[in-house]
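In the laboratory, one determines a bound structure by crystallizing the protein with its ligand and collecting diffraction data. In a computational setting the workflow is compressed into a single prediction: the sequence and the ligand go in, and a structural description comes out. We illustrate the idea with shikimate-3-phosphate.
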Amino acid sequence: MVEVKTIQFDKPVVKGTIQVPGDKSISHRAIMLGSIASGKTTVTGFLEGEDCLRTIDIFKKLGVSIEQNGTDVLIESPGIQDWTTPVGELYAGNSGTTARLLLGILSGSSVNSVLTGDDSLSKRPMKRVTIPLQSMGASISGNDEGDYLPLSIKGESLKGIDYQMQVASAQVKSAILFAGLNAHGLTVVKEFAISRDHTERMFKQFGANIQQDGNVVSLQGGQVLKGTDVVVPGDISSAAFFMVAAAMVEGSTVEFVNVGLNPTRTGIIMVLEKMGAQVEVLERYGEKEEPYGTIRVSNSHLKGISIEGDIIPTLIDELPIIALLATQAEGITIIKDAEELRVKETDRIAAVTNELNKLGAQIEATDDGMIIKGPTPLKGAKLKSYGDHRLGMMAAIAALITEGPVEIENPSCIAISYPNFFEQLSDLIKKGEDE
Ligand code: S3P
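The predicted complex, in structure-token form:
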């Protein structure tokens, strides 16, 4: 039986202040680095989403002691050199970040393991990671020359690499940097467009010496990390859903406290401003580690824009919800250079186009993006989530502006990155009714 959630509102307004759950990318990395380092690491603000819980389970199987209590995590590790060979497979669930970063980590460890994932993850390309890792000396084998999970990884002694990235992907960059940490010699990664730099920032927090010079990142192998205390800010990719709601629903204003403001992730703010929404950054802290602060977003008249080039990696996960926003903007919005959307949890170009068009939007899919005509009034319909958390949340936010209910098939996938999404949505609507 397919689970279906029906969402209907009567002229809603979203208002209030929220703190969205911890950043998914940073939560994964905190568990990974706390497990690689020796000694004690604490994590506060951890995202209790399913993807990050898979990462915890995997490191426990490698012999690391991890106690998770809500958003607090305590890690005590002997260090990567003393991990134990796991009993059974390491299951990454739906999480591309877990799988790809682990390939880099496990390749240079001293354990042998088999990495598996759910149906969606088993269809996502891994060669982008296994090819550079194999040229560092990694021993990885599996179906289709190692392009798909399950993959078997035999820990080896690796050598550094000078690598020019072929795709704009922080997962690929991070996998190589993690492998480089345990390799002999220098590892250099050159990007053509800068992707999220959480790995680089957190390596420094754990005491590693890593250089960032424009698009080039380099580090010497053989560095030993020490446990530390990590504070995870709110996930701007989760906040993006309510930022769009505030921008698009008449009379709305939402304030986001403690939300991540790392410049490699804030493309959504630039897009909202360029489209004409009112966005104010009220407070900004943490410039040395992970920047975070308070932002306020309010509704106003929106216009279509072009989104392409170097900004794409800084908002790649926000493009489904940006597409919804564009249906309410006057004129044409063009999204280009975003072919990576085709290999996310689902083909997000096809899925977003199909689902929003069911609501009456005018969207045309292109090879590397979408062309969206607006503004179009939207009507309710039954939408598929494709088991993709961001598609599920896009459908729920669409219900704020549709005439008639939106039914979402398989909404539970939203817990992958935003377990309390529906509670926060209700809170903002209630605040809107109260005012
Ligand atoms: C992530 C990188 C991005 C993003 C994903 C998380 C990360 O993927 O889409 O949700 O934590 O490094 P790519 O690096 O494949 O673009």
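The first strand starts at residue 4 and ends at 7. Keep in mind that any predicted model is a hypothesis to be tested, not a measurement.
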